[in-house]
Design goal:
The protein is an alpha/beta fold and 444 residues long. It is built from 14 helices and eleven strands. The protein has an eleven-stranded mixed sheet. Helix 3 runs antiparallel to helix 4 (126-142), helix 4 crosses helix 9 and helix 5 runs antiparallel to helix 9. The longest helix is centred in the middle third of the chain and has 26 residues, at 190-215.
Length: 444
């Protein structure tokens, strides 16, 4: 894929015109398709993205472009746009297992989910992490996915079941954690919890009947019968509770109590899962994108910042997993565009954006990051990017950019938004790349 970015000012000055003076984003020559577009507001980041998207679609109908639109302002004509909010009935399942024996599995899925949560502003404590890990391991095992057994990581694992095997969802995790919380609170196993829940449901129903009778003034025979029924239910609940306590079900009741540490820690993890689930975009119902469309726009402006970060991490993980399952690719098949990309990247090695920057090239994935300054990104990420474009920076970022990117101050001063920019292309086989003074062919 070859996309023209502008004209080489030095080549034009030397009298070289035409194709050889054109600066290209050429995936056949670049070390990878990953791109950084840096510029303050009003310097043309969105215009540059639109130009690249249009050129990419015109060249390769097999390429799909995924736009993570933070502010809802990257409106691409003809794109399939889906808005995500707490009221939508679709989203992505963060607990879906990758069946690949090298990149997937239960342990990695759990670690990726925990790491994604910890990259938000509210990190999990050490005890909370341990409890959440135990909860997820148990729910995966109950669904037929076992850590250390790659043959169980696929939905089609050859085991005959009464009901089809399925990936657990965040809603399942919430229900499971609530169930475990009740068991820890009562100090008993599953049978006691089930019995007490049944008694509570019946008690609630009878209490409602009692209120109805009182409103209607009927307090004689019916009310007495109702009181007798309530007493009978209480007695049954006590008996069921006692029997459940005395009956060891799995031999792991004490282990469960120890594994889940304490009621307070388990309660805090349960509440955290409930809050994440309440965002409404982490579901197993896929979003209604038009599969025939080359551009999918994920409008996440209605989400809070932590929710946007978690959403972007889970989306990128899914796209990376899909690319790995697809296999090695000669060309770019997925382009992920991150608006305000510095919000989604950090220095941690398991950050999915860093992982894509390092490992996704051979699987046909290119990551395009738009932000206000190169200084927002780690050295590790910057060193793995095939193309960097500087459209015009606020002067407060100049010193950091000069130091980290080895660019001259004169080059930054030369940039005129919408008229010129600096482009660095890391081509295969080149020991060192240079910044190219680039004049825009068709400025805004």
């Amino acid at each position: 894929m070859k996309i023209p970015l502008g004209m080489d000012a030095e080549a034009i000055k030397a009298g070289r015109t035409g194709f050889e003076s054109t600066v290209h984003w050429d995936t056949g020559r670049l070390i990878n398709g990953h791109t950084l577009i840096a510029g303050k507001s009003g310097t043309g980041k969105t215009w540059t993205l639109r130009k690249m998207i249009s050129a990419a679609l015109a060249q390769d109908s097999k390429t799909r472009i995924h736009i993570v639109d933070t502010h809802g302002d990257i409106d691409i004509p003809g794109s399939s746009s889906v808005k995500f909010s707490e009221s939508t009935g679709y989203g992505f399942n963060p607990l879906e297992i990758n069946s690949d024996h090298d990149f997937g599995g239960v342990r990695k899925r759990i670690q990726q989910f925990i790491s994604a949560i910890n990259r938000t502003s509210r990190q999990l404590g050490t005890k909370q992490e341990a409890v959440l890990r135990a909860l997820l391991q148990d729910i995966y095992a109950s669904n037929g996915f076992h850590d250390g057994k790659p043959e169980t990581w696929s939905l089609d694992d050859g085991v005959v079941r009464k009901f089809p095997k399925k990936h657990p969802t965040l809603a399942d995790a919430v229900r499971f954690s609530q169930y475990k919380l009740k068991g820890v609170f009562l100090g008993v196993g599953n049978r006691a919890v089930t019995s007490l829940e049944a008694a509570n449901r019946k008690m609630f129903a009878f209490q409602r009947k009692a209120r109805d009778l009182a409103k209607g003034g009927r307090v004689d025979a019916e009310n007495e019968a109702l009181r007798a029924e309530i007493e009978r239910l209480k007695s049954e609940a006590i008996d069921a509770y006692s029997e459940s306590v005395c009956a060891m079900e799995t031999g792991k009741e004490l282990d469960d109590l120890l594994k889940y540490d304490s009621r307070d820690v388990l309660k805090s993890v349960c509440e955290r899962l409930e809050n994440i689930n309440a965002v409404g975009v982490f579901k197993d119902q896929p979003p209604p994108f038009d599969k025939s469309c080359g551009v999918w726009r994920y409008d996440i402006r209605s989400l809070a910042q932590d929710e946007k970060k978690l959403f972007a991490e889970i989306l990128m993980e899914r796209l990376f997993v899909s690319a790995v399952e697809r296999g090695v690719s000669d060309g770019v098949r997925d382009i992920i565009i991150l608006d305000e990309a510095h919000n989604y990247l950090d220095d941690t090695p398991d950050n999915i954006a860093n992982k894509i920057a390092k490992e996704a090239r051979k699987f046909g994935v290119a990551l395009v990051c738009a932000s206000q300054s190169p200084t927002h990104f780690s050295d590790d990420f910057l060193s793995n990017v095939g193309c960097k474009m500087i459209l015009g920076l606020d002067e407060m970022f100049w010193e950091g950019t000069i130091r980290r990117m080895r660019i001259d101050r004169a080059a930054l001063e030369w940039i005129k938004p919408h008229r010129s920019m600096m482009v660095q292309l890391n081509h295969k086989g080149e020991a060192r790349s240079r910044f190219i003074y680039t004049v825009l062919k068709d400025p805004k």
